[in-house]
Design a protein that fits this description.
heterodimer; A: mainly alpha; about 60% helix; B: about 60 residues; mainly alpha; about 75% helix
């Protein structure tokens, strides 16, 4: 595929990549803090609720907040954005990526390999593991898919990618973790039914719904197949920190190695490149990205 | 052993209904005063969870997506 067709040399793919590389260097300590922090807060809720130091309803609210914060640090790990290609730091990716997902009751390895396929085949009906939610017809459909468990049911992709040995190995590893989570959940619910429901299961559902809605559905509504067409810039009434700045998800699909908190600066510099490529909505990106809305209304 | 595990996993919705939903229903009804002393309450709760799980298993999904 020629990524430089119909674009002047000034905005070539190589130059775009060089700009992106500048924002793909920094060690993302704040993301690690959020990932480990929310998981520790969530773990601490159990003794706090059991000993009646805080009521169960407030534990539920805090746990739901933790669950909403838990995916993004794992997402950075899935892209290897902590180790940055350094084999000695790979353990940080694995540790942060797995530990933060305790709140969502989901294995890191399955999310990692399916997310890589989502990037490789975005909006391909048969090959994109997120197709069902990123191409849902309405918010209601996303809510039902998330609560139903359909949005995270990646079992069929094990067959679709049967020829990919690395995918199979990672998936099988993830299945073991998934079964361990299920076993722990079942034991806990027998011992502490309401606590398990309100501190773990229901917050995880809320977290999955939040993640699916803002990471998968909104950034991909009405988009097509293609590097500069498969994600969009979008607006939302929420301040962007509340939806994890997912209005900027477009740049993540272009250059997944850019650190999440460096994306606004990267977009400011990449804006002329995106306009040259005819990316929908790129002209409306403010010259300086601060608060919501990111896109001029 | 693998075969047994496969059978258990093939019926994961039934197990989830029986154990998870049954336990939660049982815990909720224990908190409702007017139901105190009602016979077979725990058995009814776990049976209700089991039925929900069986229905989900037959349908292949929990909700109406």
């Amino acid at each position: 595929m020629n990524l430089n067709s119909n674009v002047s040399e000034e905005f070539s793919f190589e130059k775009e990549k060089a700009v992106a590389r500048k924002y793909a260097q920094r060690f993302q300590w704040e993301m690690i803090l959020i990932g480990i922090g929310q998981a520790c807060v969530w773990l601490s809720l159990w003794p706090l609720v059991m000993n009646e130091i805080i009521p169960l309803w407030s534990g539920f609210i805090i746990a739901s907040f933790c669950a909403c914060m838990s995916y993004l640090p794992s997402h950075e790990a899935q892209h290897g954005n902590y180790s940055r290609g350094n084999p000695k730091k790979k353990w940080i990716d694995r540790f942060v990526g797995s530990f933060t997902l305790i709140t969502l009751i989901y294995p890191y390895e399955i999310l990692r390999v399916t997310h890589m396929k989502h990037h490789a085949y975005t909006n391909h009906e048969d090959k994109d593991p997120d197709f069902i939610t990123s191409n849902a017809n309405s918010v209601k459909e996303v809510i039902l898919c998330s609560l139903d468990g359909t949005s995270t049911d990646y079992a069929k992709y094990k067959d679709i990618y049967a020829d990919d040995a690395a995918f199979q190995k990672a998936f099988d590893k993830g299945v073991n973790v998934f079964l361990a989570y299920r076993l722990i959940l079942m034991i806990l619910v027998l011992l502490f039914p309401l606590q398990t429901l309100l501190l773990w299961w229901l917050p995880a559902k809320i977290g999955v719904l939040y993640t699916t809605l803002f990471f998968s559905y909104y950034p991909h509504i009405g988009t097509e197949v293609g590097r500069y067409k498969n994600t969009r810039f979008w607006q939302h009434w929420m301040p962007r920190y509340i939806n994890h700045s997912m209005q900027l998800h477009f740049v993540h699909h272009l250059h997944p190695n850019i650190g999440h908190y460096d994306e606004p600066k990267a977009i400011e510099e990449l804006k002329p490149f995106l306009i040259a490529r005819g990316v929908p909505g790129a002209e409306d990106i403010p010259d300086r990205i601060t608060y919501n809305p990111l896109i001029k209304i | 052993m693998v075969k047994v595990l496969e059978i258990i996993l093939d019926h994961n919705k039934v197990w989830f209904g029986l154990i998870f939903i049954g336990s939660v229903l049982n815990a909720i009804v224990q908190k409702i005063n007017i139901l105190n002393g009602a016979p077979y309450l725990t058995a009814i709760c776990f049976f209700a969870g089991f039925v929900v799980g069986v229905i989900a298993h037959i349908r292949g999904k929990w909700l109406w997506v």
